[in-house]
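[User] I wish I could look at a protein chain and see how it folds. I have put the entry right below:
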Amino acid sequence: MHEHLYEEKYLPLLAKAEELGCAVYVHPQASDDADMKDMGYVYSSPGLGFGLDAMKTSLRLILNGTFDKFPKLRMILGHCGEYFPFIIDRVDNRFAWIKDDEVKMKHTVAYYFKNKNVVMTTSGIMSKITFECTKQAFGIDSIIFASDYPYECLSNMMKFVKTLDLTEEEKEKLFHLNAEKYILS
């Protein structure tokens, strides 16, 4: 049985993280969805399931008003923000178009990304298209370098980042300034 960070019993943990200025890294786990498990480990876990798990957990935290209760709380997502850079506009459009009384958030989903309640790492993503989409959707100020070690090779991740068209200022933000601002502050 999986437990989820958005459950009420974890509110004290999130409150303490906000009080201490600690970021909460939402890392995926194998999907507990029976349909996902039926397709095997790679599909249900690193191939697709991990990203879906982290996205569902983080979206539930946003939708239930967690960042309105804890406005200084910071959440970090890996893998260039999971699937958010690609669908954030669609998600916000649907919530604007279709009212849902179960949704407790006071702002759009994108607001919590723009407000830097949610930032992301590069972990495990070595695709220029994915990186550029994430950068365009949320800005270089929201991205922190990570390799996803031991699941990805650090030297390969470093080689990949060197191929990106980034200014020196952007590289400084990616490699350490954003981490210092969001994780170490």
Summary: Residues 8-182 form a domain with the TIM Barrel fold (CATH 3.20.20.140). The chain has one domain: 8-182.
